[in-house]
Amino acid sequence: MRESRVLVVDDDHAVRDVVRRYLERAGYAVDLADDGETALRRHDERRPDLVVLDLMLPGVGGLEVCRRIRERGPVPVVMLTALGEESDRVLGLELGADDYVVKPFSPRELVLRVSSVLRRATSAPPRAQEPLVDGSLVLDPAARRCELDGVELSLTTREFDLLAFLLRHPKRAFSRAELLESVWGWDFGDQSTVTVHMRRLREKIETRPDRPDRISTVWGVGYRYDPEDERWTS
Prior knowledge:
alpha/beta; Rossmann fold; 2 domains; 8 helices
């Protein structure tokens, strides 16, 4: 089995070197880029299994690199952001990034995040696992495909896993901390990433995302998936 390849994009040589050493020590092959254009070229030359992407890059910025990578295919992206870049961090998640780590960060934590994202992106569910169906929404875990009204949805790795989890546990309310642990595999981290992914998921599966009827907000608790035969009609 080949080792997973990670593309690390950061204009700070010291950060690139530290991240490279920790990832290689964890068994990953690593490619490096110090600006956006080089990152896109490296991506196209040797398609990585995951990209670690700094948002603050010279030339083509990190958000634009993230957007272009998502256009090329479903390669997981873990963003590196500065503490004060919350709006950019949210926008990066909305562009399809799978996770983020705030600078200054622990290299060990970054490796854990990379491993978690890769594990979920590459794990194959049992062949016997049946599709999850709720009315016109059909999610096939084995094929990693989801359709609504016969049209395939473009879901990121996290969005797919989040929806699959909710469909497997209908009518039960989960807190953001529970979703973070069950879907992301973390028992720590910024819970706002759950909020952003939930909003993105609603935009893709709800008729009216501002008045969702599939994924309900349970005030003071978190979120609940309501199957078709349990929804309120208005």
